[in-house]
Amino acid sequence: MKIIKGAATPVLALLIFITLVLLGNAALAKSFGSSQNEVITFRVAQSKASNHPVSQGISKFAELVKEKSDGKIIIETYHDGLIGDDREVIESAQRGSIAFASSSTPNMTSFTNYFTAWDLPYIFENKEEVYKAIDGKPGDIIREEMEKSGFKVIFFPDYGFRQVVNNKKPIKLPEDLKGMKIRTTNSKIEQADFEAFGANPTPVAWSEVFTALQQGTVEGEGNSYSLLWDTKHQEVLKYAAEVNYNYSSDIVVMNKELFDSLNESQQKLIMDAGKEAVEWQRNLANEREAEAKQQFIDYGIEIYEPTEEEMRTWKQTAEPVWDKFVVPGIADPEYVDIILETLGKSKEEIFK
């Protein structure tokens, strides 16, 4: 945390700089958190491009904090992986080197395996279910769990549903993916999804996916329309199947020790800004996804929307993934039941 006061000697400025480097935001908050006239500057970092809806939601959060605090709390935003990838910035926030960080939730499973349940195919079938779970008991359980690892959850930006895209042939049913090399994340569940669909899942670092598609190392991938368009993947793709096999969320966290060092009004201000930011961001994310889908169509990408019966086939093909991962120590069965209860449905209803 950086503190700016009216007049500081060069020696004092040097001491503050050294303290920032050695002790990080949390220690500084304890040392300088009492003045009513100070301007406090925090940093938030994440890896997505600055024009992505997740990034824009984080920028909106920073804007709201500045507005609500009358300029007394400034949050500097660092997008595009300027400070590090998801894992690096989250670990920096945990240490207190930076105040805030954002990551996709699959990268947070090392802190709590509850996030693994969110990755299960078709556990969320639409955005209404996503928001109901995140804003309800399932989300609250994760918020409490994250505090044990030193994080205060501020909000969950909406990332979107993943679709199956490729540059080889039209895909209507899982059987059409047989033998195809499909890029996945390091998520074991996503890899199992594509194994169930009959494809050859191939984990590739995100920064290398465009080239891998260009060179034929992989023939397809799974991702949201908006992220694919914003990273120009339409240039190396020809077909898309809108199957919503997985929902991805992001998470914005603050170093818990630093959050606790703030006074009650500052804490409330930050949390209120997070609530407003996520509402604004969700609307933006949904609008952007629809816009990106149309951009794909206009570009010439062939998008196939499965019939109700075909969607049933996609779901039933993915059902064995639940049998493999909904076990103690991975996707905790009790937590999965809490999600389903919150949504008012059962596993049987999803895969019937």
TrEMBL record:
It comes from the Bacteria. One of its GO terms (cellular component) is outer membrane-bounded periplasmic space. GO terms for biological process: transmembrane transport. Keywords: Signal, Transport. The keyword Signal applies. It holds the Pfam family DctP. PANTHER family: C4-DICARBOXYLATE-BINDING PROTEIN DCTB (PTHR33376:SF7), PTHR33376. This is TRAP transporter substrate-binding protein. The lineage of its organism: Bacteria, Bacillati, Bacillota, Bacilli, Bacillales.
